[in-house]
Amino acid sequence: MRLLPDEPTIEEIDVFFNAKSVAIYGASATPNSVGQAILQNFIKPQYTGKVYAVNPKYTQVLGVPCFPSLQDIPDDIDLVVVAVPARIAPRVFEDIAQKGTKAAIVISGGFSETGSRGAELEDQIVRIGREHDIRIIGPNCVGVIDTHSHIDTFFLPEYRCGRPRASNVANISLVSQSGAFAAAISDWTSELGLGISKIISLGNKCDVDDDDLLRYLAQDDSTQVICFYTEGYDPGKGRSFFDTAKRVTPHKPVLVVKSGRGQRAKEAASSHTGSLAGSDRVVDAAYRQAGVIRADNFEQMFDMAKALAMQPPAKGNRVLMVTNGGGLGVMTTDALEALGLGIPHPSQDLQENLRKRLPAYCAVGNPIDVVGDTDASRYDIVFDEALKSDEYDIVVVGMLLQTPTLGMDVTNVIANHQRQSAIPFVVVAMGGAFTTKAGEIMELMGVPTYATGEKAALAAKALARYGEIKYGAEFRKSMRSDKP
Amino acid sequence: MRLLPDEPTIEEIDVFFNAKSVAIYGASATPNSVGQAILQNFIKPQYTGKVYAVNPKYTQVLGVPCFPSLQDIPDDIDLVVVAVPARIAPRVFEDIAQKGTKAAIVISGGFSETGSRGAELEDQIVRIGREHDIRIIGPNCVGVIDTHSHIDTFFLPEYRCGRPRASNVANISLVSQSGAFAAAISDWTSELGLGISKIISLGNKCDVDDDDLLRYLAQDDSTQVICFYTEGYDPGKGRSFFDTAKRVTPHKPVLVVKSGRGQRAKEAASSHTGSLAGSDRVVDAAYRQAGVIRADNFEQMFDMAKALAMQPPAKGNRVLMVTNGGGLGVMTTDALEALGLGIPHPSQDLQENLRKRLPAYCAVGNPIDVVGDTDASRYDIVFDEALKSDEYDIVVVGMLLQTPTLGMDVTNVIANHQRQSAIPFVVVAMGGAFTTKAGEIMELMGVPTYATGEKAALAAKALARYGEIKYGAEFRKSMRSDKP
User: Which end of chain A is less congested by CB atoms within 10 angstroms, N or C?
Assistant: First the structure.
């Protein structure tokens, strides 16, 4: 897929994720050092490229051959990971330039974030980089995790900071300005069962920035949804990001958490970012215009991203809720309504068709309540009739599994109707261990599953919002009366 | 503790949770039947009272002696659990009256929720109950779980519907109008690690209602926070609930999720509840006046309840945030500000005291950033100085554990300062397995821990809100300028 053809950046950025040979500059024999932790990631069997250490102090580190400079390595080097004190970095970049390597991740801090002396060092490496076409991620970052190539520059031990996995169903990539958040999210998503393709920590963004990553991830087939954590854009950089986003979002969903909404946070953010951080309202409007969906926080972003990665966008905003618990129906309907989605009652025809096939004590409004003693067959009937009717654009399924009558086969029923109709489905299943397992099975079949009605409603909203972005005027905004 | 002395209801209600002898009316030898599932709960070794089955068809069920009627049981019966068809219920109640038992949980459906014939049957059992001072929970409910006495009438198998546990730290009790939610929450909290004392499903509320349970739980020492899920109050019943709440809330926090905020949900709720469901704004005002804290959903309710159960209420709304990740500080501060909490900068004195003892690259604003390479000692310094200063009423601690430098001993540092200062603390720790374990340890020490800054901010808000309710005019509402 080439969403943005003729982008020179794409090949330049690709090497950060698919380097076949990597040199760790500053690799160290000292346990718990950053230079050792990064090298350790690359000697795990999952990474199949070649690895070299660079440090004049050693001839080998952890069994990896170590050289005094890049020049001494008898091989091409695709990517250099730099973990040396900032004051040495310019010399390291001369070495990179001479070697002809075109990509460097600078993990080290001590650059512009520490004041004018550090800023000077940063300017020097940027200058050398520009002269020799070296793209730079960082400095002052944790770098990159790619769950397919197993490039991993996160210097945090796995027992503290778990690494996410790729999913066969759908994957999300995340670009984070904050290294601490990148690490916390790597750790979090390792437990969350969310498919991740790439996590990129941008740090000071001295060269590679949000816009570069957006262009790259737009054409990355292993990324279904692009997520950003941003504190602000450098002067002039916001414009290019929004221009690119406008082209990308009709093809691939882009989500962002941007901190600094409030006055206090804005002050904090302004002190270390550019002008756009100044007005949250301007940023908000820019996102909206560019088709970027803004989340208030990471939880919301992941809840929305999961739905967008797994399900097709909605062609309109008419939601049908089907549930086996009345309370869950009421709570979820409340949340759907608060988010501005349509919850139209079934037409007279549809109601009659449903009444013919369901027990009399089921409620055939919206929500449709198939009641606590249901098995999977009533869900099957409801989906069959409702999808045939063409009265709905999104289906939210309440699946309370505490009763033994509802078997695990309901997951098949849901997944089959979703696939055949190509209408987006979202499931809400509140509960404990059995429910969690059922949710995992549901998601292996491609239907996103949430622990609360509010999360499911937010997922439905994201599918409708993205449908609006993708289909524009064709999106059916049917806020027709919800009376039968 | 006797919050509401001279309440005749207290002893009457207590028997539902502390019955020493129970009869299961409608106990059955049929596998997967409701009458068998309930009996099974009572023959688990955890329940130490006496159990009898009542069913003319058998002389024993699952090894439990079975009698044709209550009269035939050669023992007093404290509590009868009724699981018979609705049409038989009046006869069963005659039997209960003759036996002199004063408490009955009617699990069966088929009463007022099904129409006028069922309503007549319900009227009959209520009439018999009134004449003979029998208190009734239900009908059409799943009844009661008590994690201390192990009374458990939930007829859902444990492999589907996990049961919650009591905690040694602090416990919540939940009263739910919906049986499906009661079950889903039992199951959910079994995995959530939230201490639960009691879950009560009220069903049709033909006798025992929200007000009775509020009076009872107010004086129950094993309940630190009282939670309600309510769809509406029967005519006249809302008033007494709010009157009682006004007396309870200065002594014990009361939280409520009331569905039917939106138009659509209101319609659904009105159809099966009373007049108060009509105007959400009236209900909202009544809750506020009574000091009841309203949550939008269960997730929010549990997040707030956990903090209120574990921590003292705040004496004012000045929050200090301490973090080892700048981004987490910004995000959490955003959320605190959005909730209307004060985030004052440290005074000049406090800033100087902190600067003397912390590395120069730490930020001593609010948030105070002890930076990614911190160990527990910097947190210790910050708490020491900040709590001495008397400038803050709540402390929110960001604890990102992905770095190996921050040891598990930080949990001790946090807990010790919390205990010594008696100022409420809330922790936010984003991450995976290691972080989850650290959060569990933190909570064993009594400090509630959350996965996101937004949840931690909501917990802080609940502690401030409850401080306002408890301390009234003494609550310091210091919205002073947050400039240093």
Answer: N
